[in-house]
């Protein structure tokens, strides 16, 4: 479906999510299509951080651990995230990084399957997921084996030796969406527990962890949850697995942390999956982003996401089809997350050149351009204009400059 300017304007005027854009700090003229890497800043974040610093910390000092509920922030924010990912109250905590939470989930799952020795993933998974698996394997002296197979071979590799399967629901490069319910069902038939990485799902697509009977899940706080750079991540543990024992037994996971007992005694419920002292300021920023999403209708968000991505694909084919872009993301809407990815021989240079044209996307090695589509603040008109600017970069070969050829440390 091709749109004329009047139709695009009408889509934006009728968008039930349009009011959310004004709640984000986005400069005029910028088209930000990198929310799958770092979400935009909610306007409320700065004020809430300022209050936390000047009032809760500055005035309340240490009394704010109770007076401002600092000590229970991981559980409180976790319960809010639970509403976004189809979990129940008391099944999610906001804490630590995604990598650390993957380690917690893997070791907790292994504690529930002590007679099994394989942790399984796909070879194209986001690297940190597999790195954590490899670290556990090395620490175990090889007793636990880390196995990563080709994506299409994952389900066939499930057997009675596999303790846990770690998969990402929405692939970080292509945006391909895995069928969480079906994969979990197939794994459970073999007695395998499943950990889902929701880093590109939470806040981007509808997620129903309990509907899929998921065992564990982890996710990122700084992408579609808009929690800010390095925001705390989250960890979901299904209530039926709350007796599991993660290896990281820190003091905030203790049943009574302020009695300062010499031996570890795990807390009940999701609290036992906490570790160190909560990063209060990071949690304040994360909560501002999560609160915005809790007000949004996830069905409307997903509907708009698919319309934005379909428009992007069609505009790229029409306006940039001659320039050698190869679509990496699935054409079938239900298999597509909230991003569009293309392969191109000069992908890195194009992404860098686009910054001068006020379009911020990102690059993933070896040759992928990613455009994250965040429905809360992107308009249909932004998609059309972004593609026009991509076309201009290609027509003028603005990407063909020496300063764009040397890759930066962070891409």
Automatic annotation (TrEMBL):
InterPro entries: Kynureninase (IPR010111), PyrdxlP-dep_Trfase (IPR015424), PyrdxlP-dep_Trfase_major (IPR015421), PyrdxlP-dep_Trfase_small (IPR015422)
Pathway(s): Cofactor biosynthesis; NAD(+) biosynthesis; quinolinate from L-kynurenine: step 2/3; Amino-acid degradation; L-kynurenine degradation; L-alanine and anthranilate from L-kynurenine: step 1/1
Highest taxon in the source lineage: Bacteria
Binding site for pyridoxal 5'-phosphate: 98-99, 126-129, 168, 197, 200, 222, 251, 277
Keyword Hydrolase listed: yes
Required cofactor(s): pyridoxal 5'-phosphate
Gene Ontology molecular function terms on file: kynureninase activity; pyridoxal phosphate binding
One of the record's GO cellular component terms: cytoplasm
Enzyme class: hydrolase
Catalysed reactions, semicolon-separated: L-kynurenine + H2O = anthranilate + L-alanine + H(+); 3-hydroxy-L-kynurenine + H2O = 3-hydroxyanthranilate + L-alanine + H(+)
Subunit-structure text: Homodimer.
Recorded family membership: Belongs to the kynureninase family.
Function description: Catalyzes the cleavage of L-kynurenine (L-Kyn) and L-3-hydroxykynurenine (L-3OHKyn) into anthranilic acid (AA) and 3-hydroxyanthranilic acid (3-OHAA), respectively.
Annotated PANTHER family: KYNURENINASE
Protein name per UniProt: Kynureninase
Source organism per UniProt: Sphingomonas crocodyli
